[in-house]
């Protein structure tokens, strides 16, 4: 099992954490939401729970709860800009379908 980051995403997370001044890494998860059933949850983590899985890639800790891990295994997190929009992109091999707006997915 693994979660990875592109160099661009890792650099962006390191910058965010440095500007924030605290945090141990990036918490990645899923929640039930949207028209396709699941949505990604991305936030800075100030601590690691005992049951969390912790992956480290390119100097960034990625923290995932066990319930989300089955949906996220193998995911690569990228960061990009398209026109005026910028943000994280999830390259998740488990996704079977996405909604038209790209906010939710199903496995």
Portion in strands = 35-45%
Ends: how far apart? 17 Å
* Strand segment count: 9
Rg over C-alpha atoms, rounded to the nearest angstrom = 14 Å
- Helix run count: 2
Per the principal axes of the C-alpha atoms, what is the gross shape? globular
Largest sheet strand order: 3-2-5-4
- Helix fraction? 10-25%
Pairing-aware structural class of the strands and helices? alpha/beta
Order of helices and strands: EHEEEEHEEEE
Low-confidence stretches: none
Mean pLDDT: 87
The major pleated sheet works out as: 4 strands, mixed
Structure in words:
The structure is a single chain. This protein is of the alpha/beta class and 107 residues long. It has helices spanning 7-20, 66-72, and strands at residues 4-5, 25-33, 37-45, 53-57, 60-64, 76-82, 85-91, 97-98, 105-106. A four-stranded mixed beta sheet has the order 3-2-5-4. The chain has a three-stranded mixed beta sheet with strand order 1-6-7. The model has no long low-confidence stretch (mean pLDDT 87).
Task: Write a compact overview of the structure shown.
The chain is α/β, with parallel strands linked by helices and 107 residues long.
List keywords for this structure.
single chain; 107 residues; alpha/beta; three-stranded mixed β-sheet; 9 strands; 20% helix; globular
């Amino acid at each position: 099992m693994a979660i990875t980051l592109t160099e661009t995403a890792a650099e962006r997370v390191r910058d965010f954490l440095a500007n924030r001044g605290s945090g141990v890494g990036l918490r990645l998860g899923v929640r039930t939401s949207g028209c396709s059933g699941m949505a990604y949850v991305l936030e800075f983590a100030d601590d690691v729970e005992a049951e969390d899985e912790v992956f480290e890639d390119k100097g960034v800790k990625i923290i995932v709860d066990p319930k989300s891990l089955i949906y996220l295994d193998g995911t690569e997190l990228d960061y990009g800009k398209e026109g005026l929009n910028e943000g994280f992109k999830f390259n998740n091999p488990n996704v079977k379908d996405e909604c038209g707006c790209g906010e939710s997915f199903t496995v």
